[in-house]
Amino acid sequence: HSGTRPFLCGDCGKSFSCSFFLSQHRHVHTGEKPYQCGECGWRFMKSSHYKSHLRMHTGERPYTCIDCGKSFSRSSTLTKHHRIHT
């Protein structure tokens, strides 16, 4: 992890450490949403958002609170939940 970000967006100048992140970023400028949910048809720019959305349909809740055992489908929701224990 050298901290270099050689992959540069030609539209806005934002730089990235790898070409994959640059290719995902390009969707911001094109509006392309290549990931489509087979259940409901919603479309997403990022694969991570698509995968997170799929858990809504499957009921998967992989993020569990170590204090009370409550589980969540998104890590950000678990992070917010942790505040009730402090």
Could you characterize the architecture of this molecule?
The chain is flat and about 45 Å long. The chain has helices spanning 19-30, 47-58, 75-82; strands at 7-8, 15-16, 35-36, 43-44, 63-64, 71-72. The chain has a domain at 35-85: Classic Zinc Finger (Double Stranded RNA Binding Domain, 2-Layer Sandwich). It has 86 residues and is α+β, with helices and mostly antiparallel strands. The protein contains three helices and six strands. The strands form three sheets. A two-stranded antiparallel sheet has the order 1-2. 37% of the residues lie in helices and 14% in strands. The model has no long low-confidence stretch (mean pLDDT 95).
At a glance:
The chain has 86 residues and is of the alpha+beta class. It is 37% helix and 14% strand.
Largest sheet: 2 strands, antiparallel
CATH class of the domain at 35-85: Alpha Beta
In the CATH scheme, what's the topology name of the domain at 35-85?
Double Stranded RNA Binding Domain
Structural class: alpha+beta
Number of helices: 3
- Number-wise, the strands total 6
Distance between the termini: 34 Å
As a percent range, the share of helical residues equals: 25-40%
The side-by-side strand order for the widest beta sheet comes to 1-2
